Amino acid sequence: MTGLEAGRTVEVSLLHRAPKVSYGPIRGVTFGLTHRDPERDEDVLIEEAVAAARAADTAVVVVATTECVESEGFDRTSLRLPGRQDELVTRVAAANPRTVVVANAGAPVEMPWREDVAAVLLTWIPGQEGGAALADVLLGREEPGGRLPTTWPARLEDAPVTRVTPEDGVLTYDEGIFVGYRAWQHGGVAPAYPFGHGLGYTRWTYERIELRDRTVRVQLRNSGDRPGREVVQLYLAPAEAGPPIERARMWLAGFANVVAEPGEPVVAEIDLPARAFQIWGESTGTWTTLPGHYTVHVGSSLESLPLATTVNARS
């Protein structure tokens, strides 16, 4: 049905043909009537968004993946946002440099415009209170306190692992133990956003690190002008040449959350688990500690680790 007009009555009819094969008595027939909003021209919509952004103090653009490109039931073929969303952000950012992009996605997406916008807020896939929560964050009532649990490439081609489709029923894990952020440590192209990355509404200064037994104490200070929350991350790296065993250059060993008022110092305590120094033995079927000295790196992400100390692991 086409050509509907407001205020004009139309007739709707339902034709039901009984099947030739009887499946028992038919007690009733039900049907539903639905409609969708009129589809508008995409060019017109983008021009309206650009005009609104040009007239606004701050522009907020919400982009998202959809069930057509992101699902647990099939693999993604691209990291691009569907439709003309990249074009929309680029046009809006050109009209207003104070553009905030809100990305509703459950996994990494390409953001070719990320250097041209004032801020990017990742909300993953929010629930029914997502709108209210987003308003609180954008208005500064709440702080965006999350950190990336994945590494976000600038382009799909930059990702170190892209072969995810079985061939002849077999999927070979050529990356071995280098899964996730560990796979990015072999050099090559830098990611758009590293593992652990995330910003808030204040700044933090990492001042001191000390080791007590297997507990790392990190003193940091809220050096901004408003209250804030920080996720202190701890990474381990072999400090000396060890046995010829394939290991990552550095790996996450622990983290802790801290909150502080402006100018306030705070101490984060992170216990070093024994498992952080161990590898799995396929022949023995057990976890084995690799003894030696390890460098303990501390900071706000895998690529921002201003403090370090050394710990000795014994078998």
Give the secondary structure arrangement, pairings included.
Layout: H1 42-55, E1 59-64, H2 85-95, E2 99-104, E3 119-122, H3 130-138, E4 204-212, E5 215-222, E6 228-238, E7 251-260, E8 265-271, E9 278-281, E10 286-289, E11 292-299, E12 307-313
Helix pairs in contact: 1-2
Describe this entry's structure for a reader.
The chain is α+β, with helices and mostly antiparallel strands. The protein is built from 3 helices and 12 strands. It has helices spanning 42-55, 85-95, 130-138; strands spanning 59-64, 99-104, 119-122, 204-212, 215-222, 228-238, 251-260, 265-271, 278-281, 286-289, 292-299, 307-313. 19% of the residues are buried. The model has no long low-confidence stretch (mean pLDDT 90).
Concise structural overview:
This protein is α+β, with helices and mostly antiparallel strands. Helices cover 11% and strands 27% of the residues.
- Overall morphology: extended
Query: Gyration radius, to the nearest Å?
Result: 27 Å
For the largest sheet, list the strands in their spatial order.
7-6-11-12
Regions with little confidence, pLDDT below 50 for 5+ residues: none
The number of helical runs is: 3
Class from secondary-structure proportions: alpha+beta
Q: Provide the residue-averaged pLDDT.
A: 90
Helicity, as a percent range: 10-25%
Number of strands: 12
Order of helices and strands: HEHEEHEEEEEEEEE
N-C termini distance: 75 Å
| Major pleated sheet | 4 strands, antiparallel
Portion in strands: 25-35%
List keywords for this structure.
about 25% strand; 3 helices; alpha+beta
